[in-house]
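Quick one: structure tokens for this chain, please?
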Amino acid sequence: MPAVFAHARWVLRIPDCRSLKTKRSIVRGLRDRIRARFPVSAAETDFADEHGRAEISVALVTSDATVADSILERLDAMV
């Protein structure tokens, strides 16, 4: 049975964010919602020291490409 690896990333703008603490709180909330709703690994992967931007990446492994596509499409709609 072949394994399918799927991944996606989003670069987010966080307007009016004036501190890294606020930004991390927002990003952590999004990351936690993603992890709770979908069987994926999720992390903040870039712009860690910038107030107004963040990059969230997700990855998953499954045996069915259709399932992977469906999960990524639903994630894209959520983010």
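The chain has a mean pLDDT of 93.
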